[in-house]
Design a protein that fits this description.
- By secondary structure, this protein is an alpha/beta fold.
- It has a single domain, classed as Purple Acid Phosphatase, chain A, domain 2.
- The chain has 10 helices and 26 strands.
- Strands 2, 3, 5, 8, 9, 22, 23, 24, 25 and 26 form a 10-stranded mixed beta sheet that branches. It has a 7-stranded mixed beta sheet with strand order 1-11-12-17-18-20-19. Strands 15-14-16 form a 3-stranded antiparallel beta sheet.
- The longest helix is centred in the middle third of the chain and has 17 residues.
- The N and C termini lie far apart (about 45 Å).
Length: about 425
């Protein structure tokens, strides 16, 4: 991404880092069956990713209530659940702070206020833009999320903090989150014992690192770094001991042996589903104790698989996507279509999965700047905001999800403008 100052370009959805093996926070809502919103109601709501390009020169820019007030109740209506989760893709920047080295998904702190007001209470912060402001951005994001008591995982002051599970306590039980990222992590972006950063899962293709940044023609199959894999699986096992429900998140850009930009610029079929290494890896995460695995990275919807009765959402696409129009290689119509997943649990037993297709507006208000990737304008502030898909478009989105899920043996039943996934025991 081009260099950007806080006040020019931003992007976001954040994470909180932990203190002693996992940050804990409480959610005071009462109720019966646990609901996850990815996004959902009275259960776990697993949400598509949020990428917001609202500049931070004006605090209004990061607040939909100020820039797009009519969109706020529509978005909030999609976010009902005891647990409302998403990926916060970017780094918090304070006034006067700027990105260097061409990367700049930055967001002002009050973007987190907007997310909390919408209902988000669980955030993954591990992604390839978490380090866009380097160590300063990691510390900013953790500090501002902590101040707002938003539970987060995936980045931290040290690798142990970045890898540690986070815990959200609700009246219906404790939900853990373990979060990591693979591919396109900036040099120095992986946390270490002495350095802030991301909980990275490094990928090897034979004797080469596969960062998804260059083509590797003829490279052997991808495999996770054993040290990173064991660290992540250890965190999942720890979470399994302490939580009633364990969500495992991965932000992935590693597909085959080509660069992420090549795959999407050329519209290659492999962008539409997970690579073989990823399908094998997520099964290991479930074997370690994950109740649900959810991913983002490819900015579009992938299929759903069940393994040992646990759902795997290979990619939920975008929820807020107000990126500049200069990012042409991830600007297909399907990048602006996705679905919100609602999971209902009774204890650890998954009872139902419902999906609501959504569409994000491609055109914002006013005029875009198609040449300056750092332009801050009303067009950018008001584009890529979600609303329920209706009519034929809703059907097309759900049919695509069903098609991508069919190879995994997953049955998706479409009922009008909603869909249900048959839960496998």
């Amino acid at each position: 991404m081009p260099a950007a100052a806080c006040g020019r370009r931003s992007a976001a959805i954040g994470k909180i880092s932990n203190g002693f093996g996992g940050r804990e926070a409480t959610d005071g809502r009462a109720g019966g069956a646990r609901r996850l919103a990815c996004v959902g109601s009275r259960a776990v709501c697993l949400k598509p990713t949020i990428i917001t390009g609202s500049p931070s020169r004006s605090t209004k820019a990061s607040q939909p209530a100020a820039t797009a007030p009519k969109a706020v109740p529509v978005m909030a209506g999609l976010l009902k659940g005891d647990v409302v989760f998403t990926n916060f893709e970017g780094a918090v920047a304070l006034p006067g702070q700027a990105a260097s080295e061409g990367r700049g998904f930055l967001t002002p702190p009050d973007a987190l206020d907007a997310l909390k007001a919408l209902g988000f209470n669980l955030l993954s912060l591990s992604n390839n833009h978490a380090f866009d402001l380097q160590a300063t951005g990691i510390r900013n994001t953790v500090r501002e999320a902590d101040r707002r008591q938003i539970v987060h995982a995936g980045i931290g002051e040290t690798l142990s903090q970045a890898a540690a599970p986070a815990y959200l306590k609700t009246p219906r039980g404790t939900v853990a989150l373990v979060s990591s990222a693979s591919g396109l992590i900036a040099p120095g972006g992986m946390a270490t014992a002495e350095r802030p950063g991301v909980n990275e899962l490094r990928i090897r293709a034979g004797d080469k690192d596969n960062e998804a940044s260059v083509d590797l023609p003829g490279a052997p199959p991808n495999t996770p770094n054993p040290e990173d894999a064991e660290r992540i699986l250890r965190s999942i096992r720890e979470a399994r001991q302490r939580a009633d429900l364990v969500i495992v998140y991965q932000h992935n850009h590693v597909f085959g042996n080509r660069a992420f930009s090549t795959i999407f610029t050329e519209g290659m079929a492999e962008r539409l589903g997970p690579n073989a290494w990823l399908k094998k890896w997520v099964r290991a995460e479930i074997d370690a104790g994950a109740d649900v695995v959810v991913m983002h990275g490819a900015p579009l919807l992938h299929g759903v698989e069940f393994y040992r009765g646990r759902p795997i959402f290979y990619d939920l696409g975008n929820f807020i996507y107000n990126v500049p129009p200069t990012l042409t290689y991830i600007h297909e119509p399907i990048n602006f279509e996705s679905a919100v997943a609602y999971l209902e649990y009774h204890g650890r037993t998954l009872r139902s999965i419902t999906l609501r297709p959504i569409v994000l507006n491609v055109l914002g208000e006013g005029q875009p700047d198609v040449h300056d990737p750092r332009a801050a304008n009303q067009f950018l502030f008001t584009r890529g905001l979600p609303a329920p898909a209706t009519g034929a478009q809703a059907g097309y989105i759900l049919e695509r999800l069903a098609e991508f899920s069919r190879p995994f043996g997953t049955r998706v039943t479409i009922n009008g403008e909603m869909a249900e996934i048959s839960v496998k025991r």
